[in-house]
Amino acid sequence: MLNNCEQIEGGMMTEQEYLETRVTTQRKYFSEKATSYKKYYYITSILKLVISLVITVMSSVAFEISPVSILIAVLSALMALIEGILLLYKFNENWITYRMTSENLKKEEFLFKTRSGEYYMLDDSQALNIFVQNTETVIQNSNKHWEGIYNNKRGEN
Asked: Does the global pTM surpass 0.90?
C-alpha cells in the first residue's frame, strides 16, 4: 500500500486521502441515508396500518353522520395522504438503494485493504487504480439507480 507521503499517479491524492475523503465519506453518507429511509419507511408503514385498522373498526360502528363517521372520513383522508407520501418520497426504494451502495463500498474497501479478490497479487499502484475505478463505479451505479427511481416517479404523473 502507499504510505501517506507517496502520491497516486498524477500527484493529486494519496491512497489514504482517497480512502478518507472519498470512500469513507461516501460509505458513511449512503449508510446514514439508508438508516433514515428505513426509519421513515417503517414509521409511515406502521402509521398507515394503524389508521387502516382504526377505520375498519370504526366503520363497523358508524351508520349515520356522527362524530365517528367524521373521524372515519378524516382517517381515510390521512391514509390517502400517507400513501401519497410513500409514493412520492419512495422511502423504501431509497433505503434499499442507499443500503446496497453502502454495503458494496464496504465490501470493495475490505477487498482492497486485504488485497483479496481482483486485488490479489497486484502491486500497490495497480491495486489502487482498480480500487478507485471500482469505487467510482459503485457510486455511479447508485446514482443511476437513484435517478431511475425518480425518473419513474415523474413518468407516473
From this structure: no
